[in-house]
Amino acid sequence: MLECIFYFHPTDPELPVSELKNDRFLRALMREPVDMTPVWMMRQAGRYLPEYRATREKAGSFLDLCKNPDLACEVTLQPLKRFPLDAAILFSDILTIPDAMGLGLYFGEGEGPKFERPVRSKADVDAIGVPDPEGELAYVMNAVRVIRRELHGEVPLIGFSGSPWTLATYMVEGGSTKNFALSKGMMFDQPALMHALLEKLADSVTSYLNAQIAAGAQAVMIFDTWGGVLTPRDYRDFSLSYMSRIIDGLTRENDGRKVPVILFSKGGALWLEQMADSGADALGLDWTIDIGDARKRVGDRVALQGNMDPCILYSSPERIRQEVAGILDSFGEGPGHVFNLGHGIHPEIPPEHAAAFIEAVHDLSRR
Amino acid sequence: MLECIFYFHPTDPELPVSELKNDRFLRALMREPVDMTPVWMMRQAGRYLPEYRATREKAGSFLDLCKNPDLACEVTLQPLKRFPLDAAILFSDILTIPDAMGLGLYFGEGEGPKFERPVRSKADVDAIGVPDPEGELAYVMNAVRVIRRELHGEVPLIGFSGSPWTLATYMVEGGSTKNFALSKGMMFDQPALMHALLEKLADSVTSYLNAQIAAGAQAVMIFDTWGGVLTPRDYRDFSLSYMSRIIDGLTRENDGRKVPVILFSKGGALWLEQMADSGADALGLDWTIDIGDARKRVGDRVALQGNMDPCILYSSPERIRQEVAGILDSFGEGPGHVFNLGHGIHPEIPPEHAAAFIEAVHDLSRR
Fold first, then answer.
1. Are B156 and B87 in contact (CB under 8 A)?
2. B181 and A346 in contact (C-beta within 8 Å)?
3. Mean per-residue pLDDT for A4-11?
4. Which of B181, B287, B290 lies closest to A314 in CB terms?
5. Contact between B293 and B327 (Cβ < 8 Å)
6. Which residue, A140, A359, B267, B321, is most buried by CB atoms nearer than 10 A?
7. Beta strand A282-284 with A261-265: parallel, antiparallel or unpaired?
8. Which residues from B are below 8 Å from A323, CB to CB?
9. What is the rounded CA–CA span in Å between residue B69 and residue B91?
10. ipTM score of the complex?
11. How close is the nearest chain B Cα to the Cα of A185, in Å?
12. Chain segment A340-358, per-residue pLDDT in tens
């Protein structure tokens, strides 16, 4: 377990970064042999943990929490103090980039994210610049540096970004949406304008992830939350192509190791073959596909991360263990599996159920 | 165009049912040759039409509208007076069965459907009976009879039901849900109880659809709105198997013709092969799969219904026409295509765009 002391000097580059003590997450992503299947959970730093809720309370708003590197580090490390997780993931929001572009991100009471200034016209797109990761987004890089130091090399740190298409939907709609009327409207009626927006976003995400890597992120994940609402053609042209371009533009090294890239399109199980050609090292899977079938489809090209239905965590520890066994069995022998949920852990899950899940993965997969 | 006069005697069985003047929808579902590709729209009787909003206003609540056969007929026929659609679909709600089971369906102001008495325990499941389609649900059968008569044989009438799994989610959750915590919780922790509920629902849906067929429905569609939130294993065991059982139990004849069954699992494109083995004549597709690829996968076994992204209807008539052309082209030559949207038409769509869509399908597919 981590002994976490919150003394740090976020901007001092001289402090040493510890050797990595547990690298099975990075090894599995590179399809190298591991002693047991590594496991982490999307949203592992989140509302299901009472200590997270306490820090969130202390921080003020959700955005205040994201923008305070010390508190972001605190919540990032909380699940690692409870559970023997094999990776930490930067605590942040997927909408930091559009916020840094000046769109005015805010969270209304009991509502999802909103933007004061949505992007609807050519003038709006023209006005957007690529944010400086060490300028407007320095709080993210500072959080990465603080977390890396405070991890003391226990486990690797995952950096992340939303995908260009996912960011564009929020920017055009001005917030969450069920119908995607405005964002798909722009895509269908003004494809050149949507492409111009996506190009700026791809450049921004590339520079943002490269800065996270430079600051210490040892793997990066691209969250394409809304790729799955597209037709196969539009997914390829408006989401996947920009993610491939980002992957091509990444500096893939940190501390002398390759920095693996994980690509996760929610609802993307139909398109695994194309995703496997994106240059990503691993694909995130939701639970709508059997992981053994997914493996048959992508072969040796990529590792797979997933894919337990997060609702299983409402069940008893015995039922959770049974489900873990089934997924391990379906993946089968050989390298290239990072265990995860198929989506973020729900806020109502008892932490003991998360503990049972993580224990079951390690227990049942030990070689 | 229909000349629709609202004089009817809903319970008089002696009134003659006209010969069917346009049967290309039924022929396409049976994979027989047609002069042009038939088209209809999910939710074609709905809020995008000002005349629907006027009738809805007159009716009182949404449920009052569903439960009044004359007004249900009126809104069912409204889109047919505007557009040369190839099928009518009964105006009703998917939750009529649980309502008839005594769960107390209501719609809060600006909210989705809710149940006063959700189903959570063995006692709750035991208390449920199979509703009498000509008893508590007689208003639905009366609506079918009225609509059949008022259609004057212009186009066939589609009856429908929600799938057992879809109905069960609402019944257990007590309304709409994002997380499916309670319904999946029951499925994972008390599978026998969930199966008992699904068996009662399968019996109820079978008797409900058979009664719709007896009352005049010339095709039936099963809406599995929430099958796509399941793992492949759970989809097979908790959704598809009950839909297959329903299809086996249907009386598949009306006016000397076979009554085709359409199966639509939203998000089910991964499972088309299994769905094609269900006994259904046609599968509904959402837009996440290329219809040509879907056709390759199911071969000659079933017809396909779909699958334009409903968001295309926000675009210009030219763009709509271009998309229709692409889908027709992808489906290719030969029988077995019913054109539709991949989901219900959105309330904000201008009716002229729906007109352009329907015209494009007929125009571009004329043999």
1. yes
2. yes
3. 36
4. B181
5. no
6. A140
7. parallel
8. 188
9. 9
10. 0.91
11. 6
12. 999 999 999 999 999 999 9
> How close does chain A come to B174, measured CA to CA in Å?
17
Q: Is B43 a catalytic residue?
A: yes
Render pLDDT for A40-64 as a digit per residue (tens, 0 to 9).
999 999 999 999 999 999 999 899 9
Cα separation, B200 vs B196, in Å, equals 6
Alpha-carbon dihedral of residues A176, A181, A185, A187, nearest 10 degrees?
Answer: 40
DSSP 8-state secondary structure symbol assigned to residue A105: E
Residue B184: exposure state from Cβ atoms within 10 A (0-12, 13-18, ≥19): buried
Using the Cβ of B319 and the Cβ atoms of chain A, whether some distance falls under 8 Å is answered with yes
3 state DSSP class of A248: helix
Question: Quick one: average pLDDT of B121-141?
Answer: 98
Calpha distance B197→B335 (Å, rounded): 38
Q: C-alpha distances in angstroms, B341 versus A39, A234, B32?
A: 40, 16, 21
Q: Is A56 marked active-site?
A: yes
pLDDT mean over B280-298: 98
> Band of the pLDDT at B171, cuts 50, 70, 90?
very high
Token pair belonging to A56: 């969130």
B330 touching A, CB under 8 A?
A: no
Write the residue in A189, A234, A288 that is nearest to B228 by C-beta. Answer: A288
Q: Report the pLDDT averaged over residues B214-230.
A: 97
Chain A residues near residue B180 by CB distance under 8 angstroms: 311
Give the helix/strand (H/E) hosting A24: helix A24-29
The predicted model scores a pTM of: 0.93
A287 → closest Cβ in B179, B231, B287: B231
Per-chain mean pLDDT for chain A: 94
Asked if A178 reaches chain B (Cβ–Cβ under 8 Å), the answer is no
Helical axes A181-189 vs A191-215, angle rounded to 10°: 110
Examine residue A340 and say whether the peptide bond preceding it is cis (omega within 30 degrees of 0). no
Summarize the confidence of residues A317-338 as an average pLDDT. Answer: 97
Tokens in use for A224?
A: 């394409």
Nearest-angstrom CA–CA distance, B334 and A189: 31
Please report, for residues B4, B79, B91, B232, B244, the alpha-carbon distance to residue B50 in angstroms, rounded to integers and kept in the order given: 18, 11, 16, 41, 38
Judged by CB atoms closer than 8 Å, whether chains meet at A346 and B181 is answered as yes
Q: Would the CB atoms of B311 and A189 count as touching at under 8 Å?
A: no
